[in-house]
Structures are given as C-alpha cells and as structure tokens.
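FAQ: What does the model actually see?

It sees only this:
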Amino acid sequence: MAAKRRLIVGISGASGIQYGIRLLELLRQTDVESHLVVSKAGDLTRSHEVALSAKELRSLANVSYPIGAMGAAISSGSFPTLGMVIIPCSVRTLAEIASGVTTSLLTRAADVVLKERRRLVLVVRETPLNLIHLRNMTTVTEAGGIIAPPMPALYTKPQSIDELITQTVSRVLDLYEIETDQLQRWGQDIHMHTNSDPEPS
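And it is asked to produce this:
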C-alpha cells in the first residue's frame, strides 16, 4: 500500500493570505492531504484581507492544528510528510526558523522539516529587504530550505490578480512535484519565438 502523501501548510501574518488560500484550494484537487497551521498574526491578516472566517479557512484543509498545539503530529519527525510550505511567510517567521528558536507549532513544524531533510519552502512576503532579512534567507537556504518569494510571471499575460496568484502557487506546488492543471509552463504552454518564426512586418 502506497504511503499517504501529506503536505504541511503554514500561514503566517505577512500580507498575502490569498496565496495560502489558493494553495489549499488547489491541494483539494489532488491526492495530497493538507495539514494546516495558522499563526495568530495570520488570523489577524485574514480578517483584514479576505471575507473568510477562521473556521472557513481551516475547513479548506484536511487537518488543522491550533498554533499552540506543540504536541501535534506535525511537530514530530516520525510523522511522514512531503515537507512544509509557509505561504505567506513573514520575516518574523523567517527569523525564528533561521535562529532555530521555535515558539509555536508553525516554526516547530518547519524546524522538524529541516532536521528530517524534507522540503521547506518559504514564500516570503516583504519589501524592501534589509540585510537581516537577507542573511536569514541565506541561513535557511544553507540549512536546506527554499526561499520562493511570490514573483508574478508576466509572460503568461495574466488578466486578473487571481491568475497571478494561481501561477505563483502552482509553481510552489511544482517544487513538491504536485501537479495541477493551472500551471502555464514557459516553452510548453507559452509560445516562444524561434528562428523559424516569420520576421515581424
């Protein structure tokens, strides 16, 4: 019997909770079981940015944990997962992970993913970045994590903010080899000019 595929999804207090919501929605269309943890600041951001209650947000996941549940399954390396994505990831959350000082289930789960050599992706939402932020990103990268800021792919000619969000989230899921039908790939779904293309008139 094949092992169940699970992905831990963290949502912190950075602006851009729509990215986390869209990722949970796309995961529902796959065979991957989502395990969600939302920080207190993440819930605060949710109340400002979307018309979605805390209960409705958590209902998008297969399993949801309170932020203070330090004894939850995802706090142990013996619980098998594909890894964890924090989307969006605040610079405070980034700093905790980089320092190894974990004060909540969100950062404890990320620490476990790193120590077990599983994939950790941080969708860091902050601009501009200072030297402390950059050094923390370097530390996490050296520990095996991936920093994946939500950079819009304009070559897809997006017609809405939702399309921009979906493309970014699909690229994040691609890092876990989780296929969706929403990802437009350069050279595959996007036409590129070649030497055989006619010259423009």
